[in-house]
UniProtKB/TrEMBL annotation:
It holds the Pfam family Glyco_hydro_88. This is Glycoside hydrolase family 88 protein. Keywords: Hydrolase, Signal. Gene3D superfamilies: 1.50.10.10. InterPro entries: 6-hairpin_glycosidase_sf, 6hp_glycosidase-like_sf, Glyco_hydro_88, PolySaccharide_Degr_Enz. It comes from Thalassobellus suaedae.
């Protein structure tokens, strides 16, 4: 019996190693990205939890961030046209709350469409709202239960939602006021939520000092929001600038930590330091990490010999969660902490994360 168990274990390890060693082909990357995107568009307004997400909600905003990356490498304007139609139907407006970072997410897509079509109407409402924020900045504390606390970036998800918009506005206008606001608020949030020992972000103040199975609670998708957001900000800045290097320092610290805590199967546990207690695959956080790490290799920032195996393993892991129809499974539902995920459950933001990851994997393995 012991010998049989040994053979089974060794066989499983060999199969896993073979799967992980398989070459990734850029045309196959684009193919699976297209399949996932097409499935998501077809099911865009399907009920999620109790009802569909509003088109300008952060959930869909995160989808658009990934979808426009697919549009940029696609041989068709299908995805640009789909995104453009959403903007036109909503007159390029943002969601309801003036200061709330989640409601700013959709502007990342608006600005990227503006870059393609040069239509000022696409960015007019965003500039107007962000200029208002500049002249009427929130003064509240970052403490979780402070009044109007979420008028500032006091939860780590916010670092994906709003900062790239400020960086994009700076890039397309050249007006430093947008960059100055970005740096001031980002530093305040990082000083508050970043754990210098673990090089990870708490989701918000309420998780500081708490333990889950004797481990600090660092939520995978929460840190995935941060890691992907760092990339989306740095893409807008001059690599020689002090601002870029501020974000790069955080990015490098997180990247080093992330490869250390990747699970043997290629995912990242929903509780980053507690993979023993959260063995279920999760694809939204994992996709964001693949995106960020592949980007670092593509930019020559990360040593390929050190990081490439983690990227390959991670990409192969999330691709295994795509159904034959194109649905990305094992996406953790909306939340703020480690939880559960299921093979037959998805979410639009998971698709967005997957498409972002694919865009960098496509570049990485499309090189000659």
């Amino acid at each position: 019996m012991k010998r049989l168990n040994f053979i089974i274990v060794v066989g499983a390890l060999v199969i896993t190693s073979l799967l992980q060693a398989q070459d990734i082909k850029s045309d196959e990357v684009k193919e699976v990205m297209t399949k996932v995107a097409d499935w998501q568009i077809e099911h865009f307004q399907d009920a999620s939890e109790k009802k569909p997400h509003p088109p300008l909600n952060w959930t869909n905003g995160a989808l658009y961030v990934g979808m426009i990356k697919l549009a940029a490498i696609s041989n068709t304007d299908t995805y640009y046209n789909w995104l453009k139609k959403i903007g036109e139907e909503h007159k390029w407006q943002l969601n309801d709350r003036i200061y709330y970072a989640d409601d700013h997410t959709v502007s990342q897509m608006y600005i990227d469409l503006y870059r393609k079509y040069k239509d000022e109407a696409m960015i007019g409402p965003t500039k107007k709202q962000f200029d208002y924020i500049l002249f009427h900045p929130a003064k509240t504390s970052l403490e979780w239960k402070s009044p109007y606390a979420q008028d500032r970036w006091n939860w780590c998800d916010a670092l994906f939602m709003a900062p790239p918009v400020w960086a994009k506005l700076y890039n397309i206008t050249g007006e430093k006021k947008y960059l100055d606001f970005l740096m001031s608020e980002y530093k305040a949030t990082t000083d508050f939520l970043f754990d210098e020992e673990e090089n990870l972000y708490y989701r918000d103040e309420s998780y500081m000092g708490k333990l889950d199975n004797n481990t600090k609670i660092f939520w995978s998708r929460g840190n995935g929001w941060v890691f992907a957001g760092l990339v989306n900000v740095m893409n807008e800045l001059d690599p020689k600038s002090k601002e870029y290097n501020y974000f790069l320092d955080i990015y490098l610290k997180m990247a080093k930590k992330l490869v250390e805590i990747q699970t043997p199967d290629g995912y990242w546990s929903m509780s980053l330091l507690g993979q023993t207690f959260y063995p279920t695959p999760e694809t939204s956080g994992s996709s964001f990490y693949v995106y960020g790490l592949a980007w670092g290799i593509n930019k020559g920032i990360l040593n390929k010999s050190i990081y490439a195996s983690a990227v390959k393993k991670g990409w192969n892991a999330v691709v295994k969660c795509v159904t034959d129809e194109g649905m990305l499974g094992y996406v953790q539902p909306i939340g703020a902490a480690p939880g559960s995920a299921w093979p037959d459950k998805t979410e639009v933001y998971g698709t967005g994360a997957f498409l972002s990851a694919g865009s960098e994997i496509y570049k990485l393995y499309g090189r000659k």
